[in-house]
Write a structure and sequence with these properties.
Layout: H1 3-24, E1 28-31, H2 38-53, H3 60-69, E2 74-79, E3 82-92, E4 111-119, H4 128-141, E5 148-153, H5 158-163, E6 167-171, E7 182-187, H6 190-197
Parallel strand pairs: 4-5
Antiparallel strand pairs: 1-2, 2-3, 3-4, 5-7, 6-7
This protein binds coenzyme A.
């Protein structure tokens, strides 16, 4: 049979997995990440950071480390089952960041250190970064032990985070290779709300 003749018979077979995917995978889903998501996370990081500056906020082993220790402080945005944007955080036990915050998770801390927010290249400039950050901030409000979220970013991203309600704390004491950062902070209102409600 010629290739052309075979096409009608091949077509349904080739299309059926696609159809199945559409039925089984939600169009859009937000959920905490887990260690199995580490490769997808790192692929986005590789393009977003390493190809630009040679550095990235979290290397693959660090992604796995935090997604094992504190998956509940991460949030992934999946479309048709594909990771399109994510945030990874861990707990820190001081208000300001220092070197140890890059690698440590302090389970009794009250500050969420946001290590990284990144959107897959093909999904940028669609408002996804701010939306994901907003959902993450709402989620953190439900965690009674969280008082602050802090992050370090390069100067050109300061306006971006200001729009999400972060305030500038000043230069960050951490430097990575030749890169310097501004430290920013967001106060989580959840614990105040819980205190008010607990009176009744
Ligand atoms: C930065 C990033 C998270 C923004 O997400 P996004 O979904 O593409 O954001 P949007 O394009 O919808 O932009 C929202 C606003 O941020 C601004 N913005 C987006 N990327 C920016 C950047 N790299 N630098 C400065 N401002 C930026 C936009 O101009 C826009 O401003 P506006 O509201 O005045 O129009 C995304 O571009 C990304 O993943 N970049 C690579 C990784 C990175 O740098 N992460 C942040 C450091 S951890």
């Amino acid at each position: 049979m010629s290739v052309t003749g075979a096409r009608p018979f091949l077509k349904p077979i080739l299309e059926s997995p696609g159809r199945q995917r559409r039925h089984t995978l939600p169009a859009s889903e937000f959920r905490p990440l887990n260690p199995q998501d580490a490769i997808s996370v790192f692929e986005i990081e590789r393009e977003a950071f390493i190809s630009v500056s040679g550095e990235c906020p979290l290397h693959l082993d660090e992604v796995r480390h935090f997604l094992t220790l504190c998956p509940e402080l991460s949030l992934g945005w999946f479309e048709q089952g594909r990771l399109v944007a994510f945030i990874i955080g861990s707990l820190w036990d001081e208000d300001r960041l220092s070197e140890g915050a890059l690698t440590l998770h302090k389970p009794h801390g009250h500050t969420v250190h946001i290590h990284v927010l990144a959107v897959h290249r093909t999904f940028r400039q669609q408002g996804k970064g701010p939306i994901l950050m907003w959902r993450y901030q709402q989620y953190l409000r439900c965690l009674p032990y969280v008082r602050l979220a802090v992050l370090m970013c390069e100067d050109d991203l300061v306006p971006f985070y200001k729009k999400s309600g972060f305030k500038v704390l000043g230069p960050c004491s951490i430097t990575v290779a030749h890169l310097t950062f501004t430290e920013m902070q967001y106060a989580i209102g959840g614990h105040a709300l819980m205190r008010r409600n607990s009176q009744f």
